[in-house]
Amino acid sequence: MKYLFVLVSLLIFQADLSAQTTFIHNQDWESIKENAKNNRKMIFVDAYTDWCGWCKVMDENTFSNEAIGKMMDQYFINIKLEMEKDELGLKLALKYAISSFPTYLVFNENGELIYQTVGYQEAAEFMKTLFKIITPYNHVQRPGYSQNFATKYPEFYLKAMGMNRKKKFPSSEDVNEWVSDHTDLSIEANWTVYQRFYFELHAKNRALFWKQKENLDSLYGRDLTADLAANFLFMDVKDLVDKNDPAKLEALLKQKLPLVDNPEETGKSLRLYYAKETQNWRQVNHLLSKRFKDKGIENTDSWNEECWYIYENVNDSQLIKLALVWMDSVVKINPDFNYLDTYAALLFKAGKLKEAELKAKEAIASGKAANKNVSETEALLEKIKAAIAAREALK
User: Which of these, 31, 67, 65, 29, lies nearest to 45 by C-alpha position?
Assistant: First the structure.
């Protein structure tokens, strides 16, 4: 990995940014595949929409990079498709349930989807992605998808995907009723609709996925089913919150964690979520303390979020005390405005008013230097000063 990073860095930073990726504007899928076969290349589809801001940033910052352009032109027939307007874009969006942008679809010369990823990437990061794509080991077979665009979908799916240029989303009841009548997810249309509206599914219909998961892995690729498994497991855990029964939580995790990727970390995240939602602050204390002991501050943003949550939601004095320790470590690593603001707020909540005042002033100075909006921190500082004055008046 060290050598790959060095190679990627050299490729990126030696690039002349005047060049860019060559995209072919073609709506004929058969001729695109023929072009790929003749040139022995893969097909790369930049799936974008006109309203997608990050798609435009990807064009400006990443596809414009010479090293990226050379790499992509060497290995791919590059196609750019507006997924809500272009005829081929609409067909591919329907077939693969594409609704997040930018999405990058990679097909072999036969038109079989072998790699898929989503989201903006800086040039250095995207170069690593390209190395993954050109490595056959990372290609995923998806025999569940047919090699044509003749699949029949329900009307509500077509409307939701913007056919006829107008989007209309179905009700949860309509989705669940249809899924209840189309339970065999090995059928392409059933799977496509199911994964597109997974967030609407009731527990009974989510259970279809767990029963069929092994077969779905082989038909559509574990990369796609793994994301769905993680989402469904979270929804299952969420359904248990009102019951407030830790034993049921552990039974659920024992059954389903082996079916998701990275089960250990997923389990930690879900147990922490459950503890927060059930206001089991002792368990939150235990889980976060163990994480801090095992890994330290491995991600400053993540720890800042945890500590801000404690500031907003927790009155447990022991947990607040620990949050101060964690935020002290965070700001020592990176005295960022947002981190200093969280630290000041926690000091205020803990009653450490003089320290809170100093930290709030430090946060405001840092924020102004970075041209950040510091109005909320200034309001916090006024609250701190008022609390100090009230305390002095009692002496």
Answer: 29
pLDDT (average), residues 227-240: 96
Paired with 104 in beta bridges are: 46, 117
Domain parsing of the chain, residue ranges: 2-138, 297-395
Q: How far is CA 266 from CA 103, 115, 239, 293, 321, in A?
A: 25, 24, 17, 18, 27
DSSP state of 187: S
3-class SS letters over 262-291: CHHHHHHHHHHHHHHHCCCHHHHHHHHHHH
DSSP line for 285-328: HHHHHHHHHHH-SS-HHHHHHHHHHHHHH---HHHHHHHHHHHH
For the residues 43-64, what does the mean pLDDT come to?
A: 96
**Which homologous superfamily does the CATH classification assign to the domain defined by 2-138?**
Glutaredoxin (3.40.30.10)
Task: State the DSSP code for 80.
Answer: E
**What pLDDT was estimated at residue 27?**
86
- 344-355 CB burial, b ≥16 within 10 A, e <16: bbbbbbbebbeb
**pTM greater than 0.85 (yes/no):** no
CA dihedral 249, 252, 257, 258 (to 10 degrees): 150
Query: Residue with structure tokens 């006109």?
Result: 50
pLDDT in tens, 184-210: 999 999 999 999 999 999 999 999 999
Decide: 266 and 233 in contact? Cβ < 8 Å: yes
- Cα gap 157→153, rounded to integer Å: 7
Angle at Cα 143 formed by Cα 97 and Cα 174, nearest 5°?
35
Helix (H) or strand (E) run with residue 47 in it: strand 42-48
The pLDDT tens digits for 115-142 are 999 999 999 999 999 999 999 999 999 9
CATH of domain 297-395: 1.25.40
Token readout for 100 is 């997040």
Helix (H) or strand (E) holding 46: strand 42-48
Strand, helix or coil for residue 260: coil
How many angstroms separate the first and last alpha carbons of the chain? 62
Nearest 5°: CA angle at 309, between 303 and 345? 90
Q: Which amino acid is at 320?
A: I
Phi, psi values for residue 322, rounded to 5°:
-70, -35
